[in-house]
Amino acid sequence: MDARIEVPEGGVLPADGVQPGDGGEEAAEVCIVGTGFAGMGAAIRLKQAGIGPVVLLEAAGDVGGTWRDNTYPGCACDIPSHLYSFSFAPKADWTRMYPPQAEIQDYMRDVARRFGLLPHIRFHAAVTACAYDAAAALWRVRCADGRRVAARFLILGLGGLSRPALPDIPGRGSFQGRAFHSQQWDHGYDLTGKRVAVIGTGASAIQFVPRIAPQVARLHLFQRTPPWIMPRPDRPIGPWERAVYRHVPGAAWLRRASIYWWQESLAVGFTLYPGLLRRSEQKAKDHIAAQIPDPELRRKVTPDFHIGCKRVLISDDYYPALTRPTVELVTDPVREITSTGIVTADGVERAVDCIVYGTGFRATDYLAPLRVVGPDGVDLNERWRDGAEAHLGTTVAGYPNLFLMTGPNTGLGHNSIVFMIEAQLNLVMDLLCRVRDSGARTVEPRAEVQRRFNEAVQERMRRTVWMSGCRSWYLDARGRNTTLWPGFTVEYWRRTRRAVPGDYLLDAPHPVPAVAADTTAVGGRADDAGRADRSESLIY
């Protein structure tokens, strides 16, 4: 398979049916920001429904979202491969039970080609601001390079794990060696024989630390809070097994369904009865005991909070890496970074050549630095200053024709986010079809409906393990969990299959459509193909 998608100079591929708008703007019925699972999934569903023209804006030079950006050593998914794909575009030839980054990225590129998305993508188009023009009933989207798009509907597929979080440590900018975040891995910098500091022991660090530990001269791993880590039941998927999934009817579906329901069963402990997780906690402790003989090191890596309160990780090689003589696990807090190293609270300075920040992402900053300004002139970032909220994590009162993919409280601690994205798309498509069929200009949720929904979410959240007292990236600055869905994914799927008409405001009929639907450009007939009943079950 080709290593990457070839993009002409300027980042624009020819787009049939998409014409320039007034004032140098490119006109579209729908503008999608981002080409990860969310953005590409939205574009595919729009094409199938005959809604268009569609323009996708992508800041980078390739599709893939987080799987394009994260290329650190050992990067892989922690959801089994057969579930980590679109239900309408299954992949029968995964090579491992847990897919590595490169294989997921190849899958994303293949999906873009297979569904004809490339002509509609504008690469190297970093969106900086979106403002709603109420008089024209259009979203006006501006890119950093001056390109502009005017669209009736705006879908933001930004991804919750796309903006790196760097720690606020005094002196961070003074370090004279090499420093980078794990998402921005410097593959041109040779770590061989170097003294390396890694700050953070989260999901990324437990994957790259075992890969670089044998290579470096010395590795100092700075840990604030140890994670709970379960065994990783990974293995290669052999040629014969892949052949079964390709050629035996129903085999791949059965595999996908079994994984889905196993993952879904974990929600019982996370969201309803946290006490059920005690067996999992003991299994994690047994994992530590089996892989770390030193009692002091075992003590350092054993969390003091309930399993599940923070993201549960999976690895079979992280703990053994910590036992290497060249690896030091440092649990004293970092006090400052100097020009030559890192000083901890006990006053000890460790000189290093390189610092790798495995400090995660700004998961609760859903939009920043992108500005999204509604018809009242208020930036959604400002409106969310005290906490992000949306109706069903998808639409926001006061922001007509705006749809958020993986928005507030749609993240998961137990199952595949691709499932949630497809469930969201059922709702988005149902709303778009209702607007089209009624001739309305705009759609948005009623403010009181959004308020009641989020009050119910937070009330349910109080009973979950995620609110059991630890500090995690699931929580915002006020301690509210605006990240995760507090229940089963099958419930979310049921609630998003069709919109409840009374929950939404559709305004007066649109006298002249901003952009006529171009069914030839998007390769489909404008009928009910976009409605939610196309996908009776996303595990199929």
UniProtKB/TrEMBL annotation:
The keyword Lipid metabolism does not apply. SUPFAM superfamilies: FAD/NAD(P)-binding domain. Keywords: FAD, Flavoprotein, Monooxygenase, Oxidoreductase. It is an enzyme of class 1 (oxidoreductase). Pfam families: FMO-like (PF00743). Residues 1-21, 521-540 are annotated as: Disordered. Its EC number is 1.14.13.-. One of its GO terms (molecular function) is flavin adenine dinucleotide binding. This is FAD-binding monooxygenase, putative. It comes from Rhodospirillum centenum (strain ATCC 51521 / SW).
